[in-house]
Write a structure and sequence with these properties.
- The chain is mainly alpha-helical.
- A 3-stranded antiparallel sheet has the order 1-2-3.
- α3 packs antiparallel against α4 and α8 packs across α12.
- The longest helix has 20 residues.
Length: 320
């Protein structure tokens, strides 16, 4: 009776709850959570109310995803919830408070035997969120790829390099490390040796195939002086292109294309992934093409895709 009276005195000031919220409270053990906060944690009514709102918001999100009990919440579902909070425009401090509430919620449910696992263990906080990568629009990419003109002595090489870097989503180390034998033009594939010496096959389109074919046929034999070591892209002296050389070439054509935003070799890789997702590509397929070991690394591009969707909505919806 004493415990019950104490709980009532603490939770009574909380606002009345609609039937929909009551259903969430049952399925997600919110009454036990609030009682434990009051009786075992000694939380103030203000803290209990703040945590209740945060957990209710999470429970409502899970219900909308088809998850109706706390036991069915997965780490992936919680990550999507945190991304949802970012999409709502919540400040980092608010998101951190939400995550703190969720961790407390699952700790209490575990101690009460209401769940058997804690999906918050590896949940990132805003301080660890990765910055969204800079990407080029499709128009900017087309301008960049068209920048090498025939008056440039190494135009065939430069166009092939840019087409392949963007067309296959390559890292700069992968551009310069490609061997002639790695470009399977008849099959429309490029064989890439990525991080950890992991090999992957990436499809390339007609534009990249054509540009590489012209370079290999017309220019590379002229550049090759016995020092090429079988590498695809050579510098003007016939030696394998260096990382710095690739950067300088890219910077030159970014300027020629009139692109004002900062562009690095990785920007083309980011743009490759983003444009695929915007076009409806499957995240797993993009993961394979990028050579990511963990799909969580690839998921950063879903944030960029959300930004794209929001911009389309604002531009075309009659009530933006």
């Amino acid at each position: 009776m004493v415990a019950s009276a104490k709980a009532s005195s603490v939770t009574a000031p909380l606002p009345s709850r609609a039937p929909e919220e009551q259903a969430l409270r049952r399925g997600f053990h919110l009454l036990a959570f609030e009682d434990a906060l009051a009786l075992e944690e000694g939380a103030s009514p203000r803290t209990i109310e703040a945590y209740r709102r945060d957990v209710i918001r999470c429970a409502a999100f899970m219900r909308d995803q088809g998850i109706t009990t706390a036991s069915d919440i997965t780490p992936g579902a919680l990550r999507e919830f945190v991304y949802h909070l970012k999409d709502l425009g919540l400040a980092g401090t608010s998101i951190r408070r939400n995550i703190s509430a969720l961790r407390t919620w699952f700790r209490i449910m575990l101690s009460e035997g209401l769940v058997t696992h804690d999906p918050t263990e590896r949940l990132d906080t805003p301080a660890r969120f990765r910055t969204l990568p800079e990407v080029l629009s499709v128009d900017d990419v087309l301008k960049l790829l068209a920048a090498p003109g025939l008056d440039e002595r190494l135009a065939f090489r430069d166009r092939a390099m840019l087409e392949l870097a963007y067309g296959a989503g390559l890292r700069v180390s992968e551009w310069i490390g490609l061997a002639l034998k790695d470009v399977l033009l008849e099959e429309g594939l490029v064989r890439v040796l990525g991080k950890g010496n992991k090999e992957r096959l990436v499809p390339i389109g007609r534009s990249a195939i054509g540009a590489v074919a012209v370079y290999v046929r017309e220019l590379r034999p002229v550049l090759e002086r016995g020092d090429g070591k079988g590498i695809l892209f050579l510098n003007g002296r016939g030696k394998p292109l260096t990382r710095m050389g690739a950067w300088k070439i890219l910077r030159k054509y970014v300027t020629m294309a009139g692109i004002e935003k900062p562009v690095s070799p990785h920007t083309l890789r980011h743009s490759f992934a983003t444009h695929l997702l915007e076009g409806g590509a499957d995240l797993r397929a993009v993961q394979e093409m990028l050579g990511h070991a963990d799909i969580a690394t690839t998921q950063i591009y879903t944030h960029v895709d959300r930004e794209y969707l929001r911009s389309v909505h604002r531009q075309f919806h009659p009530r933006p």
